[in-house]
Amino acid sequence: MAPDPQCAALNAAKNRTGMSYAQIAAKIGKPEQHVIDVCTGTVRPTTAEFNALARALGITDVPPHDSAHATV
User: Fold this and answer.
1) Rounded to 10 degrees, what is the CA torsion of 70, 20, 26, 32?
2) Exposed/middle/buried for 52, CB within 10 Å: 0-12, 13-18, 19+?
3) From CA 44, how far away is CA 22, in angstroms rounded?
4) What is the pTM of this model?
5) Of 11, 20, 30, 48, which has the fewest CB atoms closer than 10 Å, so is most exposed?
6) Which residue intervals define the domain HTH cro/C1-type in the entry (predicted)?
């Protein structure tokens, strides 16, 4: 199964910003473990979670919502 494009975009943005999972979790008010699970693709984010994470990580382009599209 292809990785979730939303999770891949979040993980790439996390790596680009250099933020820790703890820093991201503090910004969005979620447990650190949940942020880890979402960014690594273990858990798929809700729309609200993705939007909060995207804002925290500075994502401005919305990735496709299905695995048929590659995330750049």
Assistant:
1) 80
2) middle
3) 19
4) 0.77
5) 48
6) 9-64
